Amino acid sequence: MKFDVHNASFIYQLRKFLLSLLHMRIRFILWSLLLVIGTLILILESYYQYCSCAVSQEYSNRNIKLTHKAIDMLDSLSIPHWPDFQSLLNVLRNETYNIWDADVDLSIEWPLRSNLSDPKLKNIDIFIKHIEKCDFRVDFLPDRKLIQLKFPDDTSKDLSHVDIWLWTRKYIYNHNGNNYEKEIVLEHNDYTIKYKSRFISEIYPLKPAKWLGRNVTIPFDSDTISYKEYGASYMKATVFRKNCLHNLINGRWI
């Protein structure tokens, strides 16, 4: 077989040209990605620096309205409840609602220990069905022991909502010298919670407070709970970039 030098040279040049085009395309894609990432970081940082990760006023108003509705429902059922986490901080700081907050947190003890309205509500399925009858859309996350309340017309899981955390009563034994002392705690093992086992004496008796222009009840030792959950600076309102990311991606600022 006769080897054609000209054909080989042409193939080599063509291959070299195609590889050059491929490298140019890859460089273009990489530069485009860097530009997009840089733009997103700039938007996120501007949202953080100049807007404090704020959700829209309409979003905040719907959350506050939903909170009043949820508290009214729990009160009507004689279920002890309290603002928790960031919402508890709002009460302690005499705030209403942080402009970057995506939801409101309430807590109850579960299973219900006493209910003056209907003992059957100690069954979680019956409890959820009853909540739905109160004109809520309910999402139950059993693995997280969390009930999310929304308006019936909200269809996205990222829209306005109130979280109700279900805390379980448990008994622990602390070693004290030669003796073991039994302590009662309310426990919740969700991955987002730092202070997972709260002494019952830190919760009960619930004490009265004012929040959102109404009477509410908060844990007996709310300061200790907040300190153990957030650290020594819990009384200082702080916005984090992760709040911006969640609110930006989920369109809560619109």
Structure description:
- With 254 residues, this protein is α+β, with helices and mostly antiparallel strands.
- The protein has one domain (57-249): 2-Layer Sandwich (Beta Polymerase, domain 2).
- Helix content is 42%, strand content 22%.
- It is built from seven helices and nine strands; from the N terminus they run H-H-E-H-E-H-E-E-E-E-E-H-E-E-H-H.
- The strands form two sheets. Strands 1, 2, 3, 4, 5, 6 and 7 form a seven-stranded mixed sheet that branches. It has a two-stranded antiparallel sheet with strand order 8-9.
- Strand 8 (207-211) and strand 9 (214-218) form a beta hairpin.
- The radius of gyration is 27 Å and the shape is elongated.
List keywords for this structure.
254 residues; alpha+beta; Beta Polymerase, domain 2; 7-stranded mixed sheet; two-stranded antiparallel sheet; 7 helices; elongated
